[in-house]
Write a structure and sequence with these properties.
Blueprint (H helix, E strand, L loop, with lengths): L15 H12 L3 E8 L2 E7 L3 E7 L5 E8 L6 E5 L7 E7 L2 E10 L5 E10 L12 E4 L9 E7 L6 E9 L3 E7 L5 H7 L7 E4 L2 E4 L20 E11 L6 H16 L12 H14 L4 E4 L2 E4 L10 H18 L4 H8 L5 E2 L4 E2 L14 E3 H16 L3 H20 L7 E3 L5 E3 L12 H16 L2 H13 L11 H18 L2 H16 L1 E2 L16 E2 L8 E2 H17 L6 H17 L32 E2 L17 H10 E3 L5 E5 L3 E8 L2 E7 L5 E8 L7 E6 L9 E3 L2 E7 L1 E9 L6
Antiparallel strand pairs: 1-2, 2-3, 3-4, 4-9, 5-6, 6-7, 7-8, 8-15, 10-11, 11-12, 12-15, 13-14, 16-17, 18-19, 20-21, 21-22, 23-24, 25-26, 27-28, 28-31, 29-30, 30-35, 31-34, 32-35, 33-34
Helix pairs in contact: 3-12, 3-14, 4-15, 5-6, 5-7, 5-15, 7-8, 7-9, 8-9, 9-10, 9-11, 10-11, 11-12, 11-13, 13-14, 13-15
């Protein structure tokens, strides 16, 4: 392989489309239709024998060929027509299969971006067989065989349809290709397909492979004759730099994904009353027989409705969320104390650690078995309570640190999937044939060690956090095992940067973020049951998981709150934007996990754990991008903390007033600068929007409000209802809210 042992120097085999493209480029046989600039690159639109191509070249440094339209049988007419004001170029093509329109648009304010949208109007009811991919790196003399580079990340399952690669010889740079599946909803519906793993390929044939029936199954669902359907909506982002270390790759991916994100038409969000949801959830936790069970005279939460044995992670997840809610309400919640009273039964005095199950767990469970993350996540929540001054939590947290470190050393900071807690023997080593275990547990462990450092100021714990983060430095896009663990790893890196002032840890946080957002779905599905809920910017629970999960959703939200509040002006703007947008959409999207927010006929009827009760305000575990029935895994008690976490971060009391401030971005500061005025600071993405609502609590009418941004510009209300006034404000701004009650008017 020569000096670039990790790069692809030449294909081991090629498909006919690669050979055809290569021959046409070498022969110079294509006809130029249009030409335009893209920053320091040129874009040439060419008519080939069976395709319309956009060839992007960087002088002396190679290029990229993009199949903008597939033309079986060739074209009978190709013409460039007057582009609309928002377009760079518009091409209309006619051929035996029908008429196609290809729109080109360029942007280069941040990173150079080429947007290509292709629509097809079939000449007859058109069945779609297997089609070629649309992206080909070009080496010297436009030869795809001479392109040397590497694909760093490609689409996983039904997450964002992307391919991230660099072309090193020639030094063309890095490329992020994103296929906007939101725009292809009509295609998926008409053809009865889903874009599972649709973007990927083998070098040098990459990009989008439109979904069609599986091998051996002929298509039976046609595109309608005479109906214009979007069949491709591709965003290609370019960066001058080529191969680099994992930290540079992570940051570059975040920057390029941010550039693509800014070109998308984003779905709307809605106000969600998480306070009312939290009140209902608390009532159901207290009263519903399905929610808890008694052992040893103590009350324990079940993992699912009337199902499964109590375990340590479930208890601590709920206790920590209830404590957040109690602090926010400024009054104790008796249920928190009830759950906390039984925590001692999980402690193994001999091993000096917390076990997953109670001592009387049934014989159908291995009482010694523990998933690696189950060892540390309860400690994270104990650490949160300890840092708030809870003495019992502090004793349990500090008492378990020795075993936690011993396990880390035993596995050399590379934890297996599951092991026995009594002797560290491995039960399940790896998640699949790649030999990788729970790759992001090190980030979670690091965060726990930083909590220990904050409590004790002992350097040992700081060194442990460093060691765990350093051990994962080569993982790149294989870092993600479980979404929330990856988010806590990013938070640990950010916290380490704050403590040590070493830029290495800030840069390494981008590796965790890149792996997290690689597993996100930046598209809105309308497939089957998914039309009843939002999946936009949802992240699959596991690296290869088939569904989004509520627990990973709200726990990632909590981790990103810490990440952003520990950050500062040095944080990459694209990272700040993507995290803020994830949290914004989480507040909107997570509502649909609750079965009362979904039509009954779309819910799963075969349920793995317990049963679904729409009258209980507990969320379903699972929602699916491809519209499978939600709730197949079960209705989560351990996910019930979602409502408390969202309520306490999104709603902000105004002391002495009968209204609250709701915002779908974190308030980075808040100042009561007058009895009838408050100022808040948002630090979301530049150019993005935030929803700010003033919500009545109680029966008193809302006062009259004036909402202004820095400089005095007033924001007009976007909506008014009986108990709420909504405003759309800049996501990065300083907002002043002033009010006057009717009784105070002169």
């Amino acid at each position: 392989m020569g000096k670039h042992a990790n790069l692809i120097e030449a294909p081991t085999g090629v498909s006919p489309p690669v050979l055809v493209l290569r021959d046409e480029l070498i022969q110079g046989a294509m006809r130029q239709i249009a030409r335009f600039a893209l920053a320091d690159r040129s874009v040439e639109v060419l008519e080939g024998r069976d395709a319309l191509w956009a060839v992007v070249r960087r002088a002396g440094k190679g290029g990229l060929a993009i199949r903008a339209a597939h033309l079986p049988g060739g074209a009978t007419k190709v013409r460039k027509i007057r582009a609309e004001t928002t377009e760079t170029c518009r091409i209309e093509v006619e051929g035996p299969t029908g008429a196609q329109t290809v729109l080109f648009d360029v942007a280069d304010k941040e990173l150079a971006t080429l947007h290509i949208t292709t629509t097809l109007t079939p000449a007859a009811p058109l069945l779609i067989p297997v089609l070629p991919r649309d992206l080909y790196p070009l080496g010297e003399n436009d030869d795809p065989f001479r392109a040397v580079g590497r694909v760093e990340a490609a689409q996983r399952g039904l997450n964002t349809g992307l391919s991230y690669f660099h072309l090193d010889e020639p030094a063309f740079g890095s490329v992020l290709y994103v296929q906007n599946f939101t725009a292809l909803a009509a295609y998926f519906e008409a053809t009865d397909t889903t874009p599972d793993g649709a973007v990927g390929g083998e070098w040098p044939e990459l990009g989008y492979l439109p979904p069609t029936p599986q091998s051996g199954t002929p298509p039976t669902c046609p595109l309608s004759e005479g109906t214009e359907t979007t069949i491709s909506d591709a965003l290609i982002v370019f960066h001058d730099d080529v191969a680099a270390d994992g930290q540079d790759l992570g940051r570059r991916f975040i920057q390029m994904l941010g550039a693509a994100y800014r070109r998308l038409e984003l779905p709307d969000t809605e106000f969600r009353d998480w306070v009312a949801r939290a009140d209902r959830t608390l009532r159901d936790l207290e009263r519903a027989d399905e929610a808890s069970i008694r052992h040893y005279g103590n009350r324990y939460a079940r993992p699912y409705t009337d199902a499964e044995y109590p375990d340590i992670m479930v208890q601590m997840s709920l206790i920590a969320a209830l404590r957040d809610f109690a602090v926010w309400r400024k009054e104790p919640i008796p249920l928190e104390e009830e759950f906390m009273a039984g925590m001692g039964k999980f402690r193994d005095a001999k091993l000096k650690t917390l076990r997953r199950y109670l001592p009387n767990v049934g014989s159908d469970k291995d009482k010694n078995a523990v998933d690696s993350w189950y060892l540390y996540h309860p400690m994270l929540n104990l650490g949160r309570l300890a840092l708030r001054g809870e003495a019992r939590a502090k004793r349990m947290f500090l008492g378990g640190l020795g075993y936690a470190i011993k396990a880390a050393h035993r596995f050399k900071y590379a934890w297996p999937i599951q092991f026995k807690i009594d002797d560290f023997s491995v039960i399940v080593e790896a998640r699949n044939n790649d030999g990788l275990g729970q790759t992001d547990v090190g980030g979670l462990y690091a965060y726990v060690m930083l909590q220990a450092y904050e409590l004790t100021k002992k350097q040992q714990y700081l060194q442990e956090a460093r060691a765990a983060i350093d051990a994962a430095k080569a993982m790149r896009f294989e870092l993600n095992y479980q979404a929330n663990l990856t988010a806590w790893g990013a938070a640990a890196c950010m916290r380490l940067w704050r403590i040590t002032a070493e830029e290495y840890y800030l840069r390494h946080s981008y590796v965790y973020l890149a792996s997290f957002f690689h597993n996100s779905a930046i598209w809105e599905s309308q497939i089957k049951a998914a039309r009843h809920y939002s999946n936009f910017l949802g992240v699959t629970c596991l690296h290869d998981g088939p569904y989004m999960a509520i627990y990973e959703c709200f726990d990632s939200f909590a981790a990103f709150e810490r990440y952003l509040k520990d950050s500062g002006p040095d944080l990459d703007p694209a990272a700040r934007m993507l995290i803020s947008e994830y949290c914004r959409y989480a507040l909107h999207r997570a509502w649909f996990y609750y079965p009362d927010a979904l039509p009954s006929d779309c819910l799963a009827t075969e349920i793995r754990n317990g049963h679904i009760d729409k009258s209980l305000s507990f969320p379903l575990e699972d929602l699916y991008h491809d519209g499978q029935p939600p709730g197949q895994v079960g209705q989560e008690i351990y996910g019930a903390g979602a409502a408390f976490v969202f309520a306490t971060r999104a709603f902000h009391a105004v002391e002495g007033e009968t209204f609250e401030i709701y915002c779908d971005h974190f308030l980075m500061s808040s100042e009561r600068n007058h009895p009838q005025s408050v100022s808040v600071r948002l630090e979301g993405g530049e150019g993005c929007q935030a929803r700010l609502s003033l919500v009545r609590r109680g029966r008193s009418p809302l006062p009259d409000f004036i909402v202004e941004v820095t400089g005095g510009d007033r924001i007009r209300a976007s909506q008014k209802s009986g108990g709420r006034i909504d405003f759309i404000v800049p996501a990065s701004s300083y907002i002043t809210i002033r009010w006057v009650h009717a009784k105070d008017k002169a």
